[in-house]
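Page 37, continued from 36.
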């Protein structure tokens, strides 16, 4: 190629290279400007969740014959080794003025994708409530975790929660199911409150479920219930619904509440106890008595990196 035409094209080549460089820089810089990483300060009273994964995994626990319907539940303390643990005694008022005392251990730990949540509830036993119109109906035991994602002491949409329900028969068999919980406006009650995601009306399609995997075990001889599940920390869509949108490199401090109880024949009715706040009303937006939980994804150990 003659030298003169080539020289004439050099400015265009430099311009093209410059545009490629600018676009690349904008691609990496603009998201950080428009959507800066959330890195919260950690207050002294916050519980910091350590990095961990269940071992064996939830999938292995769910599929292994040793753990499915067997007489001895898996050892959740071993499975969740290294997790943040809470030793709590729930005191659940049940029919006839009795109180069921349930010594419990709650386990929390994340990797980059999931928050793992486990619970062992010693002597929880069967749901004492019976539907007077259908006494043979098995009503569930349940465990919940609720989040004030903004950590501002006041619930505003969207907030996020999870509920594991377990229906236990007299012979110790069980079935379990999961609900996402949302802080949202109820058209029927004309007020804000916690609602099951199934009951919330979305304009197009239901949101993705926050649940990852779950497994349950029950020891009929001691009445001990064990639950273990994972919920996603991050999604690429529907951020307004799944309120936990933690990205790698972020550190979130959130208020949280734990609840254990028995459902009644109405989907909203329950006998329950909560921690750290004792007796929380589902229509209260005040989280000033809740605990503070820190999930820190800023510096993952090598085995947890993508």
């Amino acid at each position: 190629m003659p030298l003169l035409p080539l020289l004439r094209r050099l400015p265009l080549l430099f311009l093209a290279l410059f545009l490629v460089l600018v676009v690349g820089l904008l691609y990496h810089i603009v998201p950080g400007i428009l959507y800066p990483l959330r890195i919260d300060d950690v207050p002294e009273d916050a519980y910091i969740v350590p990095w961990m994964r269940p071992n064996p995994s939830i999938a292995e626990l769910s599929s292994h014959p040793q753990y499915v319907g067997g007489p001895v539940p898996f050892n959740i303390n071993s499975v969740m080794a290294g997790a943040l643990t809470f030793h709590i005694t729930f005191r659940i008022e049940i029919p006839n003025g009795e109180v069921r005392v349930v010594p419990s251990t709650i386990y929390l730990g994340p990797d980059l994708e999931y928050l793992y949540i486990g619970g062992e509830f010693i002597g929880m036993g069967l749901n004492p409530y019976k539907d007077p119109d259908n006494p043979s109906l098995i009503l569930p035991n349940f465990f919940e975790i609720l989040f004030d994602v903004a950590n501002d002491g006041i619930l505003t949409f969207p907030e996020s929660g999870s509920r594991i329900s377990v229906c236990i028969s007299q012979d110790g068999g069980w079935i379990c199911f999961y609900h996402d919980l949302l802080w949202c406006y109820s058209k029927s009650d004309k007020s804000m409150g916690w609602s099951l995601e199934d009951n919330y009306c979305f304009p197009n399609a239901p949101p993705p479920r926050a649940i990852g995997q779950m497994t349950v075990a029950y020891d009929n001889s001691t009445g001990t219930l064990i639950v273990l599940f994972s919920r996603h920390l991050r999604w690429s869509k529907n951020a307004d619904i799944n309120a936990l949108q933690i990205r790698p490199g972020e550190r979130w401090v959130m208020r949280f509440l734990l609840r254990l109880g028995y459902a009644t024949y109405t989907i909203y009715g329950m006998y329950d106890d909560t921690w750290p706040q004792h007796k929380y009303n589902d229509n209260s937006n005040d989280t000033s008595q809740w605990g503070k939980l820190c999930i820190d994804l800023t510096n993952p150990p090598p085995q947890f990196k993508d």
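The helical segments are 3-34, 58-63, 76-79. Flag for discussion at group meeting. The longest strand covers residues 98-110.
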